[in-house]
């Protein structure tokens, strides 16, 4: 694994009113590493991910990505976000734009790419996610799984250094999940640095370099898929796996 640290989170705390959702998270993610975050609903996983590109502002602590602390209020967050792709549970596509227009929007508007260049890239990305024939399609004509693959292509259009996935398959019908996970597996093989919050334990076992178990706003345990799934130490992790794996 590449030893360069891409993301370094130190003592990250996030409170909403009296509710402390993140209680001092420390995590380092290396270049080209795939880190999968698991844990029960309400444990703080999605809040943690949203802090990583400042969709939520940290209450305290630091988040350093490519040597820039995005928790610093003076940080140019829009510039930093250009290098961080994010794929959400719900696809957040613009329904008034075609598939290709959704993918081209950010490169043209933010990176000032020419429309020709952006169009060529959109074609290439749609081929990468298996949707080459949907270039001119409307968003409404796509299935949920296809929309999520377009959302991944849209995030990739900015050539991000890091991809964040927030439960990208949880809103999908079961038969559509495999297509989205296949695209994510391909990205992992290509060396994309990825932080993935998911309930898909099979994906975590197969693709993760490291699995991080979050419970009650803390990282309770982390390790290789083999360590986490076959030799869990923390009683809360053991209990969680018993429930989700139906052991």
Automatic annotation (TrEMBL):
PROSITE patterns referenced in this protein's UniProt entry, alphabetically: ABC_TRANSPORTER_1 (PS00211), ABC_TRANSPORTER_2 (PS50893)
Pfam families in the record: ABC_tran
Matches recorded under InterPro entries: AAA+_ATPase, ABC_ATPase_HisP-typ, ABC_transporter-like_ATP-bd, ABC_transporter-like_CS, MetN_ABC_transporter-like, P-loop_NTPase
Alphabetized Gene3D superfamilies for the sequence: P-loop containing nucleotide triphosphate hydrolases
Domain ABC transporter: 7-241
Keyword Transport assigned: yes
Keyword terms: ATP-binding, Nucleotide-binding, Transport
GO molecular function: ABC-type amino acid transporter activity; ATP binding; ATP hydrolysis activity
ATP-binding keyword on record: yes
UniProt name for this protein: Glutamine ABC transporter ATP-binding protein
Organism of this sequence: Secundilactobacillus pentosiphilus
């Amino acid at each position: 694994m590449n030893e360069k640290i891409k993301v370094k989170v130190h003592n990250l705390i996030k409170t909403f009113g009296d509710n402390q959702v993140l209680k001092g998270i420390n995590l380092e993610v290396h270049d080209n590493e795939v880190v999968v975050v698991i844990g029960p609903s309400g444990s703080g996983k999605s809040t943690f991910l949203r802090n990583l590109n400042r969709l939520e502002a940290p209450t305290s602590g630091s988040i350093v990505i490519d040597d820039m602390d995005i928790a610093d209020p003076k940080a140019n967050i829009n510039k930093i976000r250009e290098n961080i792709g994010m794929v959400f549970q719900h696809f957040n596509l613009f329904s008034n734009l075609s598939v290709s227009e959704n993918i081209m929007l950010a490169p043209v508007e933010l990176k000032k790419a020419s429309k020709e260049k952006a169009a060529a890239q959109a074609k290439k990305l749609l081929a990468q996610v298996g949707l080459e024939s949907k270039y001119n399609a409307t968003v409404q004509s796509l299935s949920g799984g296809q929309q999520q693959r377009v959302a991944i292509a849209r995030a990739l259009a900015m050539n991000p250094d890091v991809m964040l996935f927030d439960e990208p398959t949880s809103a999908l019908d079961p038969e559509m999940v495999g297509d989205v996970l296949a695209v994510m597996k391909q990205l992992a093989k290509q060396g994309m640095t990825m932080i993935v919050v998911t309930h898909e334990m099979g994906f975590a076992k197969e693709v993760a370099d490291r699995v991080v178990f979050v419970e009650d706003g803390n990282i309770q345990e982390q390790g290789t898929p083999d360590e986490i799934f076959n030799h869990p130490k923390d009683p809360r992790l053991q209990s969680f796996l018993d429930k989700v794996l139906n052991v």
